[in-house]
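Please, structure for the following, as tokens.
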Amino acid sequence: MNGTRGVGGSRWLVRAVLATLLVVLAGVGAVEAADAHTGFEGSTPAAGATVRALPTPVRLRFADPVLPGTAAGVLTGPDGRVTLDTPTIRGVVVTLTLPRVRHAGRYVLAWRVVAEDGHPVAGTLPLVVAPAAVRAA
């Protein structure tokens, strides 16, 4: 074996390692780009708000449009767990209606949608139902 071949072999190894790193870094960039699907932007009422009348609409806003027929919501609290009626979807806004409940207190609205890019997005929205909302129901 001569010394020149060893140096050439080292260069080949360095090039192979650099090529592998470039492929890995490109893959990470692709994953980040693919992961850039719609996000939850906010709600009306806001998280932690006190609801004073029932039934009442809750509007969820997203960065990108939501696929029709893909939204669902469940309300959990002192009354147990209630699956909400079919939400209305208009572009980036999903409207769910909170039903009448028997007990005031802390509730959590769990929701799930599918964005136009096919990615599911889910979250929760804590709310407080005021005693006045229960009496009015």
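The beta strands are 40-44, 50-51, 56-62, 72-77, 80-83, 88-90, 93-98, 105-114, 120-129. The first strand starts at residue 40 and ends at 44.
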